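Re-running the complex after MR caught last week's input typo. The corrected sequence lines follow. Everything else is unchanged.
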Amino acid sequence: MSSNNTLLEEKSKAARKSLLKVVHHAGAGHIGGPLSAIDVLTALYFKEMNVEPTNPYKVDRDRFVLSKGHSAIGLYAVLAEKGYLDQKELYTFDSLDSRLQGHPDMKILPGIEMSTGSLGQGISAAVGMALGAKVQDQSFRTYCMIGDGESQEGQVWEAAFIASKYELDNLVVILDYNKLQQYGWVGTNTERAVPNDLVEEKWESFGWNVIRIDGHSFEDILEGFRQAKLVKQKPTILIADTVKGKGISFMENNYLWHSRIPTDEELSLALKELDESGDL
Amino acid sequence: MQASQLKTASMRDSFSETLYQLAVNDPRVFVLDGDLATSTKIEKVAKECPQKFLQMGIAEQNMLSVAAGLATTGLQPWAVTFAAFMSKRALDQIQVQIAQPKLNVKMIGAYSGLLTGVTGKTHQALEDIAIFRSLANMTVLAPADSVETAKMMEWANQYDGPVYIRLARDNYPILFDDSYVFKPNKGVVLNEGTDLTIISTGTATSRALEAAKILKQNNISSAVVHLPSIKPIDQELIIEMAVKTKAIVTVEEHSIYGGLGGAIAEILAANAPTPIEFVGVKDRNSESASNEALLEKYEISTKYIVEAGQRVNLRKNSDFN
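Corrected-run output:
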């Protein structure tokens, strides 16, 4: 990673630590998916998007929709780093009356642009936002992250068709392509793997500008965003190759960490890997 | 008022003209079509105000989620498809992205009920009232005629929040004149009566009025209350009429489960227990046929309202009502 991206590296590391501690504290939540998503989320909020935590509803803000809503804790951790909420509030995650619902709720937490959690829906809402910008001649851009397991939902492809039909070049979808899903395909050689072959060809055939990136390289991610802006009359998808559980050696590429809760010892080990004293 | 002698008019034409006017005059209004513009008649918007018409293709789930996204940018989308697809195919999208966040999306369920132009089971909607009224934040409306359709739409357009409007395909007697004012939580007493009250919604109201006339000839005096708004519902009027006439018949072109009849039973059981007869489609699947044949076979024609009135009138005077 380039040293130009020191801030991003610091922020994503801090967000990784937070989300691990919060899931451990809450005894609930997902880990693998948020860890694969966190670098892209960090790049969005700390470099790419025009957003102000102190003015979260300003009209010309860029929009982000987390279509894979079960990675909510990853988004909350990044929003906390950015200043939308206190670090302390992260520890209310999943509890009664918390603004940090198990899946994002747009009505109670500024910074959340769309309620998501039922897979396949967020990308369509992002299409609506980008279309809303077009028909009102507004300049904001809309970003949306989808999952590879989520792409089994037919609605994703309904959205892909309409985004292309309306030439939404103000829309960037990021596919968090970590290649693992919760339970998967028992009896096959690669039981937990997402059968998402020909993913580039699929999106190309729907009329999208397709860019393949390393979803853990800030250089790559930012270059993908830059290139997306150069293409007109087509929406862009960044197919981000990522690693489920990225950053913690014993969680990486291990489907068990889709939604497992770390023990005290596992949390301690994980934090040490992120250069933090493992004292709880 | 005698429905059979009244002039009829197309609810679809009124809907189409009103939506066109809203699209032309309100910069926030955009019309989303699920490729049914000729059936629903929103082709008028497509032809005469194309910049306000967004074709979403045959993909209702995406259409409703896109509508949610549009609403977050300050627009007021009117999503239009058949009631069957709106209420069932796109239900999760509506619940998660429109109802719960209370977004400003207007949902038109065209071709509701049983009389959908010989289309049969897939295109009839007998559950939409039950489904929509169980969603928090949702307003559920069903006009009786073309005039009320327009008034209701104008109200919905200035209301900030999600609204479901259940429309019918065919022509219906005109019950209201231009002076009519639609209020979302108000029922309308269309006929005074002392023996029982028929409470109806949507286009079933014209049949309720005919039934009241026939009951009158049989010396049963029936009040007729039209409820254009199933949610919010005019609880006060329902209780008042139950206390006054001590017998209720509910009438709807909908399943007897969870719709208007269910809503009224919930209110009366808690506030003023009263004998009720439910006229609606019983626990069965429907089919394609002429309107007349369907009304008879599925026991929701005027004749069945009359019989329900006679039954409830006997019940209220018996010891075991």
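None of the earlier attempt is carried over here. Chain A has eight helices and five strands. The radius of gyration of chain A is 18 Å.
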